Amino acid sequence: MKFAEKINAHDVDGLIELMAPDHSFIDSLGTRTPRPAIEEGWRKYFEMVPDYWVRVDEVFRTGDTRILVGWAGGTYVPEGGKRRPKNRWESPAVWIARIRGDELAEWRVYSDNEPIRQRIRETAPWAH
Length: 128
Hints:
alpha+beta
């Protein structure tokens, strides 16, 4: 839950503090991004979706694993663009957090990315 709180605060330094040295982020396509690349990845994502949020509705625990179920959303802002209400999106999401001691070893996301992909397609220069 601390990681979700740091995401909602857009606190990249706070996210980094919670990550294990060998932390991996795995997106919904199965792409694994280790540290330190994911640190810059979070910064860039918050630039692209400056009001990104996650809402955790349920948490399931088993050993060192937490399964969080809820929603994610925000507003896609194209590079050099402005935040526009028509570019808001949200979708159901599941996150799997693997904890090692007091550190987050892995953050895996399962989410339907089509809503944000649609906003990206709609704002792409070739779409106009």
